């Protein structure tokens, strides 16, 4: 990874800001990442997402769109969109690889208009993908290789900040710094305490704002309060949204084939069997139906699931653990 001087300066500044931020202040961490990418390319939207693979839950502690912060939230990501692809492939997704086909299957935020360029990079741990950093632009051709490398580096910084302690060192840092324990409990307590203190201070400041007579002073104070609300939101979503209930049983994994008819599911079962896809003729023989019927069912399956090739079915249903997710750059080649 050879980066230009401007990019190195932007990343070093972000790293300095992150290291100087309070341990509980994840908002500053996310904001520094967004500012760094915005310094090296044309950036319209930026987000940080934390996820759990077991039940496809994804939380957005930080959303920034067209110059303002957006409300965070938690949802279930789809089985055939860009997040599922990044989780399965464990590598960055680039809009330029498939002309945004995977990206445009997902939920849009901000102004709701489709982006002209984008990149999403995974936050990787030994357990798999734990989050995603996304950068989107309304200007084509802005997400260069250097931007991808910079965002990948920042994703590692965020990952290490959130999953700070994997106590495998001789010095028991967790004894003195309990926030470094990634069991969830210490971090959750820290986030709750930090949020409680912040909300108490904000309540007092709201009373002060109500007593202000100067319109400009009141506007500036309200703007400051708005940012502090997003800071509290980011801290709580990072801990409670991405790591809540770590000791409880996860919700059942959604069935990616729930929209299919029984006949269509039968075709998928044969195509994704342990011996691989046997082809239309063999599927027809196995199920006792015509080859044309197999083709009809398969076309319906791909349309319902938003897929472009039947080879994608294997990783979608979780039977291709040893295989890589299909590369979007290979789409349209047969």
UniProtKB/TrEMBL annotation:
Residues 257-317 form the HTH luxR-type domain. InterPro entries: GAF-like_dom_sf (IPR029016), Sig_transdc_resp-reg_C-effctor (IPR016032), Tscrpt_reg_LuxR_C (IPR000792), WH-like_DNA-bd_sf (IPR036388). Keywords: DNA-binding, Transcription, Transcription regulation. Residues 241-279 are annotated as: Disordered. This is HTH luxR-type domain-containing protein. Pfam families: GerE. Residues 242-267 have a biased composition (Basic and acidic residues). Residues 268-279 have a biased composition (Low complexity). The keyword DNA-binding applies.
């Amino acid at each position: 990874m050879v980066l230009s001087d401007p990019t190195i300066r932007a990343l070093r500044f972000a790293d300095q800001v992150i290291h100087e931020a309070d341990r509980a202040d994840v908002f500053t961490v996310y904001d520094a990442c967004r500012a760094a990418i915005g310094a090296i390319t044309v950036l319209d939207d930026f987000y940080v997402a934390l996820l759990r693979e077991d039940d496809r839950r994804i939380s957005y502690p930080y959303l920034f769109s067209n110059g303002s912060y957006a409300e965070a939230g938690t949802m279930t990501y789809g089985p055939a969109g860009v997040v599922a692809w990044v989780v399965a492939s464990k590598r960055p997704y680039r809009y330029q690889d498939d002309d945004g086909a995977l990206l445009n299957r997902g939920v849009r935020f901000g102004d709701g208009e489709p982006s002209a360029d984008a990149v999403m990079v995974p936050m990787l741990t030994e357990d798999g993908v734990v989050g995603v950093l996304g950068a989107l632009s309304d200007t084509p051709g802005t997400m260069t290789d250097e931007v991808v490398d910079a965002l990948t580096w920042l994703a590692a910084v965020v990952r290490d900040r959130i999953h700070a302690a994997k106590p495998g060192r001789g010095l028991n840092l967790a004894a003195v710094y309990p926030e470094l324990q990634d069991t969830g409990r210490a971090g959750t307590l820290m986030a709750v305490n930090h949020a409680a203190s912040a909300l108490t201070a904000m309540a007092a400041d709201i009373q002060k704002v109500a007593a202000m007579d100067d319109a400009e002073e009141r506007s500036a104070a309200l703007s400051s309060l708005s940012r502090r609300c997003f800071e509290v939101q980011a801290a709580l979503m990072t801990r409670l949204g991405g790591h809540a209930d770590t000791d409880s049983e996860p919700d059942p994994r959604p069935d990616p084939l729930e929209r299919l008819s029984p006949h269509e599911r039968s075709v998928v079962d044969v195509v994704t069997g342990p011996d691989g896809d046997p082809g239309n003729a063999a599927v027809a023989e196995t199920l006792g139906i015509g080859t044309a019927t197999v083709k009809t069912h398969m076309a319906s399956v791909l349309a319902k699931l938003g897929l472009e090739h039947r080879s994608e079915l294997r990783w979608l249903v979780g039977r291709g653990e040893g295989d890589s997710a299909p590369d979007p750059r290979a789409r349209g080649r047969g």
